[in-house]
């Protein structure tokens, strides 16, 4: 195992105990924490802001090419995106700061990722979402910009799809 993977694993294992303490708003709560208004650069060079996505249900997935769970769940994230994109749903895949940009670009191109992919070079996006370090970590955001659910590890995609359906029906 190379040194970067060992560091990533060590960081990930160190956070396991803190994950429940850092858990954000859940579906059904009357008050949802607002998603941070972060700016990011997509692989194609376009600048974007999460705030610009209000009015859509968003899935923000923090991942890394070295994360086997991330790679394994990506086909389901793609199919989730494809299933709901025509109804006001969008996906943003945020590659972690330690992920080599060339690996991220190659992965996105070879898998033909149909959604925005950003590289969090400085770690600012992960920091804004509560110091995300464990991958995959995924946030589901409602049309008003509220965090509905935080998933650490691969989500139950059937349950996620049900929650997305409910959020798409909200005004």
UniProtKB/TrEMBL annotation:
Cross-referenced PROSITE patterns: PROKAR_LIPOPROTEIN, THIOREDOXIN_2
Thioredoxin domain residues: 29-169
Domain of life: Bacteria
InterPro entries listed in its UniProt record: Redoxin (IPR013740), Thioredoxin-like_sf (IPR036249), Thioredoxin_domain (IPR013766), Thioredoxin_ResA/DsbE_sf (IPR050553)
Protein name: TlpA disulfide reductase family protein
Organism: Ideonella lacteola
């Amino acid at each position: 195992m190379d040194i970067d993977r060992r560091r990533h694993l060590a960081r990930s294992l160190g956070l396991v105990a803190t994950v429940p303490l850092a858990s954000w708003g859940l579906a059904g709560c009357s008050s949802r924490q607002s998603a941070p208004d972060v700016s990011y650069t997509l692989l194609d060079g376009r600048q974007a802001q999460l705030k610009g996505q209000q009015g859509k249900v968003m899935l923000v997935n923090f991942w890394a090419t070295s994360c086997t769970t991330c790679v394994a769940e990506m086909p389901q994230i793609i199919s989730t995106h494809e299933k709901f994109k025509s109804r006001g749903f969008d996906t943003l895949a945020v590659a972690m700061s330690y992920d080599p940009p060339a690996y991220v670009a190659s992965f996105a191109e070879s898998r033909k990722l149909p959604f925005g992919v950003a590289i969090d070079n400085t770690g600012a996006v992960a920091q804004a979402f509560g110091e995300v370090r464990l991958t995959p970590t995924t946030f589901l955001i409602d049309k008003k910009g509220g965090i509905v659910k935080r998933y650490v590890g691969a989500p139950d995609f059937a349950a996620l799809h049900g929650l997305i359906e409910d959020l798409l029906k909200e005004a």
